[in-house]
C-alpha cells in the first residue's frame, strides 16, 4: 500500500473515531432528552460515514475492483438516522418527557403576561366587560 | 501506521460503547434508553467495519448490514409501541 494512501486511510479512521466518541459523550453529558437526541443522530452518523469511507478505500485497493458494500451501509444509515430520530422525538413528545426549563414556548407564557402594561386589559377582557 | 490508527479508533469506539451502556442503564426515561440502544448498534457497526479492515476480509459487511437493518426496525418498532401501545395494528 502506498504511503499517502495509508496516511489518508488513517486520517479518515481517526476523524471517524473522534466523531463517534463526541456523539456518545454528548449522549451522556447533555441535559435533557431533546438535546441528547442531537448528539448521536448527527455526530455519530458522520463518524461512521468516515469509517466506512476508509474501509471502502482499503478494500478497493486490496481486491483491485471498486468495492460498493460500504456505500450500501452508509446510504442506509444516512437515510434511517433522521427517520428514527424523528420517531423518537415524536414518542418523547407524546409521553411528555421532562424538558429543559425554558425550551418550550409555554414556559414563557406567565412572564409574557406579566410584562403586558398593567392598565391595558387584553382584548377579550374588554369585550367581556362591555 | 494503519495498524496504530486502527487500534486508536477501536479504543475510541469502545469508550463510546461504554458511554452508551452508561446512558442505557442511567436513562431517566424510556425514550433515552431507546436512543442509547440506537447509538449502541450504530457504534457496533463501526467496530465490525474496523475488524473487516484489520483482517482484510469482505465477510464482515453482511453482518454490518444485517445489524443496520435490524437495528432500524427495532428502533422503529419500539417507538411505535410507545406512541400507539401496539406495534402492528
From TrEMBL, chain A:
Keywords: Membrane, Transmembrane, Transmembrane helix
Region Disordered: start-end pairs: 100-130
MF-aspect GO terms: sodium:proton antiporter activity
Basic and acidic residues composition bias: residue spans: 104-116
Residue ranges crossing the lipid bilayer per the database entry: 6-31, 68-89
Record has Membrane as a keyword: yes
Pfam families: PhaG_MnhG_YufB
Protein name (Swiss-Prot/TrEMBL): Na+/H+ antiporter subunit G
Species lineage: Bacteria, Pseudomonadati, Pseudomonadota, Gammaproteobacteria, Oceanospirillales
From TrEMBL, chain B:
Principal location: membrane
Compartments it resides in: Cell membrane
The keyword Thylakoid is annotated on this UniProt entry: no
One Gene Ontology MF term: sodium:proton antiporter activity
Origin superkingdom: Bacteria
Bilayer disposition of the protein: Multi-pass membrane protein
Keyword Chaperone appears in the UniProt entry: no
Keywords linked to the UniProt accession: Antiport, Cell membrane, Ion transport, Membrane, Transmembrane, Transmembrane helix, Transport
GO CC term, one of those recorded: plasma membrane
Transmembrane segments: 6-26, 38-57, 63-83
NCBIfam families attached to this UniProt entry: PRK06161.1 (NF004812)
Recorded family membership: Belongs to the CPA3 antiporters (TC 2.A.63) subunit F family.
Protein name, per record: K+/H+ antiporter subunit F
Organism, scientific name: Bacterioplanes sanyensis
